[in-house]
Design a protein that fits this description.
The chain has 132 residues and is of the alpha/beta class. The chain has five helices and five strands.
């Protein structure tokens, strides 16, 4: 079964109805039929929460949370193994700490990262990426 990791860029594209969110919508539908597995780092889950609060307050945050909880997205906790891997990505690449967790989770799960965030361009030779 194919595995995918979503970052906040991918989830925001879907939640905000952007054109690039169509691929995410299709993935979520496939996950609902157990055709693919979808993962989200708890760090990126928290990132969605603070972005929601900043741009639209509690209502927007609740929208994001309900979308995430509506689909079979496995939210993966930041244990020591994944945190050390994320720290290595952050130490040697110019990416945000949240993005480092998405990259680490992608590597750990042998998955494909779904994103449109150009920070990940630096990691194309390290992890598999589906560009939105």
């Amino acid at each position: 079964m194919k595995k995918f990791v979503l970052d906040s860029y991918a989830l925001l594209a879907y939640c905000e109805g952007e054109k690039s969110g169509i691929f995410v919508k299709d993935l979520l539908k496939k996950a609902s039929f157990y055709e693919v597995e979808i993962f989200l780092s708890v760090i990126n889950w928290g990132e969605m929460y603070y972005i929601g609060l900043r741009v639209g307050g509690k209502e927007r945050t609740e929208l994001y949370r309900s979308v995430i909880s509506k689909y079979p997205i496995s939210i993966i906790e930041a244990n020591k193994e994944i945190t050390l891997l994320a720290a290595k990505y952050k130490a040697f690449n110019k990416i945000s700490y949240a993005n480092a967790f998405a990259a680490a989770l992608t590597e750990q799960r042998k998955a494909t990262l779904v994103t449109g965030d150009m920070e990940f361009k630096l990691l194309e030779n390290k992890i598999k990426i589906h560009w939105l």
